[in-house]
Amino acid sequence: MDAYQNQMKLLIHNLLLMILEPLDVTQEEMNWAIPAHDSQSVLQLNSYPSCPNPSRAVGLASHTDSLLLTILNQCGIDGLEIFVEGLGWRRVPSVEGAFVVNVGDLLHIFSNAKFPAVTHRAMVNQSEHRISVAYFHGPPAESRVAPSSKFQKPCFKSLLVKEYLSLKYKHFFEALSLIRA
After folding, report:
1. Engineered SS bond to 136: which of 42, 102, 110, 120, CB 3.0-4.6 Å?
2. Which of 121, 130, 144, 180 is catalytic?
3. Nearest to 58 by CA among 165, 133, 134, 130
4. What is the pLDDT of residues 57-95, one digit of tens each?
5. How far apart are CA 166 and CA 111, in angstroms?
6. Model pTM above 0.90
7. Edge to edge, what strands does the sheet with 69-73 contain?
8. Can 121 be counted among the known catalytic residues?
9. What is the 3-state secondary structure (H, E, C) of 9-78?
10. Which residues face 145 on adjacent strands?
11. Considering just the CA atoms, what is the radius of gyration of the chain in Å?
């Protein structure tokens, strides 16, 4: 498990370097998003047993991830769906050896909504027990989250990461709208 988490940390580091480069962020902001120590990283194993009537069940209700990025291994079985504005729910096919990367709320805030958080859900199926492995990454809870200083007109207020997480816990989908500038 440690080896997997170490590989995920390295992947997150490289992905964030690529994502943040076009935003032209400061070195201080880069260090916030990719701290050497004290970041919040969580590895979560999800189990979705087969269901005799999958049209009447959901594996995990629709949501956005709270932190910066999530790397998801679907383990070869479909079940992830994303919501596409104007089109509705769309299946994300499981590709052997590939990961799905979800933008979370904190990257949504930091990028001033240039990288929108992805609304998604997990569905069950009739024939197969589905397992997925999610790796969540975010900055330290005591740090501040705000749009990058490069944005002339920030869309969101600055607040502590832990304050945002508390808002998300209490208000779920309304959390981002509550911190609009």
Report:
1. 42
2. 130
3. 130
4. 888 899 999 999 999 999 999 999 999 999 999 999 999
5. 21
6. yes
7. 40-48, 130-138, 69-73, 100-103
8. no
9. HHHHHHHHHHHHHHHCCCHHHHHHHCCCCCCEEEEEEEEECCCCCHHHCCCEEEECCCCCEEEEECCCCC
10. 159
11. 17
